[in-house]
Amino acid sequence: MNNGQLADRERALRDDIRLVGRVLGDTIRQQQGEAVFATVERIRQISIAFRREGDAAARRELEATLDSLSHERTIEVVRAFSYFSHLANIAEDQHSIRCMRAQSQGAATPVPGTIEDALVRLRAAGVPRAKLQALFDSILVSPVLTAHPTEVRRKSVLDRENEVANLLAERDRSSLTPAEAGAANTAMSRAILTLWQTSLLRRGQPTVIDEVASGLSYYDHTFLLELPRLYGDLEDGLAASDPGWNNAELPSFIRMGSWIGGDRDGNPFVNAEVLRQAIEMQSKRVVDFYLDELHLLGAELSLDRARVSISAQLQELVGRSPDASPRRAAEPYRQAVVGIYARLVATARAQPAWAVTVRVGFGVSAEASHQRSIP
Question: Which of 49, 129, 224, 254 keeps 20 to 30 A from 143, CA to CA?
């Protein structure tokens, strides 16, 4: 990386921080008034002068300004700097992603730490396929989520912070038209306004079940989406290096774990009922995810029997499907997905506590969804 590229990336980070800071400032001015904004801005300027230059006069002014604040004004100032800190951290996270992507795009060799790099090293070391297969068959990688009683941020706050992160990523990766840029700015202002109007902290002490729900919220954006992608990248990389891997199927050697709601030694509020609820919530989250994925898959796989050949395995799934709609009589993939969907719903509805929501869309009829006698 040359100095010019490094400077461009650092400039992009500063631009992102200025953007979220400006939008936050506009929000404070609009919601709390010019006086509160002026106080926050003055404290910010004095703090910068003191930190950068060690200005003794700036320190005295900062101390005097802070000491003079009323209780109500102190709360608003603390909120302002807390939110700015969160937003700046989001910008820095996006900058790290930006740097990693740039490193991958411009690299002549695989980036260290990636699957591609690991496979190159294995090939260079002459590790045979049989030894790798034996490794995959025997290892177990189990990242374990733990409860954090000090984590008092609410899911509502995390959701809006994710929205801000996605908007920054979109600005960074897309060449927006003026209309699109305007819409993105409006969305950013709306997200930060919602953040400002939302309490950062819970009103009461979170229960164990609150902690379980908070931990599960991370699955939607991380493990449930990324683990299949990781397996796919690994299988593609292995097949590219050795055709013998083309027909091989990797075992499921990554298993997510969680202590949240099940730590009977460390938390006196965890009992048998809490553990049961935690297991039910985790199971429901997985089933809901696969129902949604099947719904999307069924909408995508519109392939016609007259245009494609199908395997014996797919034909078997079609034969076991309860789907009798004439509209899909020539669409074997959709018929198979309907059958899989119905079986999963039947499994879910055998658990009354799950309250699974059935999606009706690409062709999963209510009758098919209620089937319980599917083998």
Answer: 129
| Closest by Cα among 367, 373, 375 to 323 | 367
**Which residues have a Cβ under 8 Å from the Cβ of 12 and sit 6 or more positions away?**
95, 98, 172
Residue 363 in any domain: the answer is yes
Look up residue 53 and give its amino acid: E
Specify whether the CB–CB gap between 364 and 295 falls below 8 A. yes
Q: Is residue 364 part of a domain?
A: yes
Are the CB atoms for 364 and 298 separated by under 8 Å?
Answer: yes
Domain holding 350, by residue range, is 287-369
Query: How big is the CA angle at 82 (ends 161 and 6), to the nearest 5 degrees?
Result: 65
| β-strand pairing of 257-258 with 144-145 | parallel
| Calpha distance 344→371 (Å, rounded) | 10
Residues of the chain with pLDDT under 70: 1-6, 106-107, 148-153, 352-375
At 368 the pLDDT is: 41
What is the pLDDT at residue 357? 58
Instruction: Give the CA distances from residue 2 to residues 7, 112, 173, 197, in Å, rounded to whole numbers and listed in that order.
Output: 9, 19, 21, 43
Whether 333 maps to a domain, the answer reads yes
What is the C-alpha to C-alpha distance for residues 79 and 72, in angstroms, rounded to an integer?
Answer: 11
Q: How buried is residue 318: exposed, middle or buried, by Cβ count under 10 Å (0-12/13-18/19+)?
A: buried
Cα separation, 315 vs 295, in Å, equals 20
Domain count, the chain: 1
d(CA 134, CA 293) in angstroms, rounded, equals 31
